[in-house]
Amino acid sequence: MSDNRFRVLVAINIALFLLLAGTISFFILNNSDRKIVYVDNVRLFDGFNMTKELKKRGEQEFNTRKKVLDSLYVTLQQEGISEVQKEAITRELIAKKQEFEAFNQQFAAEESAKIWSRINGYTTDFSKEKDYDLIVGSENKRNVLYAKETVDVTNELISFINKKYEGNP
């Protein structure tokens, strides 16, 4: 009796294994026409016109704030100012420097978030237009162990998002 049970269990296990293998094969073969591509996130971000525009605006604000710091530093270095004036200028310089550093961090974080939000929206449109099932983002191919050069669509996506950003269909 236990010999029959063993044979039944083996037969059931073999049948389940074959069913599982068949199901996996079906999904692999059925999905072989999936389109999976990747982009280099750094090149994508840097190549996006919105990034370039916001960077210019940020540099203008950066330079304006830096001029204030430079001016305070020059004033601090002048001969003939009293110790009381030096202390006051030093306190102001420290406060302005902290504001400057906070501005830089906040500006970079906020602008990057805006840029990535826009890139993600345009990438969705791009994926639908090209019928891609998956676009993998990678920084300098660190997350992609191997990919044919033909699946790197970074330049194509940069062109697409810049056209969308500029209002061209």
What does this molecule look like?
- Keywords: Membrane, Signal, Transmembrane, Transmembrane helix.
- Belongs to the Skp family.
- The protein is mainly alpha-helical.
- It has 2 domains: 1-33; 34-165, Skp domain (Protein Binding, DinI Protein, Chain A), CATH 3.30.910.
- 74% of the residues lie in helices and 6% in strands.
- The protein has 5 helices and 2 strands, in the order H-E-H-H-H-E-H.
- It has a two-stranded parallel sheet with strand order 1-2.
- Helix 2 runs parallel beside helix 5 (154-165), helix 3 packs antiparallel against helix 4 (83-130) and helix 4 crosses helix 5 (154-165).
- It is elongated and about 105 Å long.
- The termini are far apart.
CATH class type of the largest domain: Alpha Beta
Shape: elongated
Can you tell me the number of structural domains? 2
* CATH H level, superfamily name of the largest domain: Skp domain
Rounded Rg:
30 Å
- Derived from helix and strand composition plus strand pairing, the structural class reads mainly alpha
Helix content: over 70%
The overall pLDDT, averaged over residues, is: 84
Number of helices: 5
CATH architecture of the largest domain: 2-Layer Sandwich
Number of strands: 2
Distance between the termini: 74 Å
